[in-house]
Amino acid sequence: MKVLAVSWGSEDPTSTLQTAATISEKMDAELHVAHIWTLLLPSAPEFIESTHCERQEENARRIVEAAVETVEAAGRTIAETHIRLGFPESEIIRLIGEIGAGMVIVGKRRGSLIKRLLAGCEVERIARYAPCPVVLVGPESPLVSPA
Questions:
Q1: In percent, how much of the chain has pLDDT > 70?
Q2: What's the predicted TM-score (pTM) here?
């Protein structure tokens, strides 16, 4: 079985990843880590300077690498990391199929009430369309040991 731990945007994935590492270890599952980033102006790419995408992708890599280092320092193993450009819901569903994940673990996100009412919650859409269980963890997860 494969477990996929996912974060997106500027979210710090450390607590989500620590919980995913604990769950995958208990299940004897392979752990994959994904971070999805989205362009600030996806509908007008011609207005974005040429290095903007590269900077955003590098920032996404740094976010994931820092979290992975923390988890690996605790003796956990990560099979593979995935950095994707796109909308979280569609990229996560696509990645589940690509790697054959049997479980997805996402961090609890706090969005504005207006945004949730107008656009809905990404986590709700992921849970609705994912072909496997989706586990939602908060920063105070009982599986995350304090640093």
A1: 78
A2: 0.81
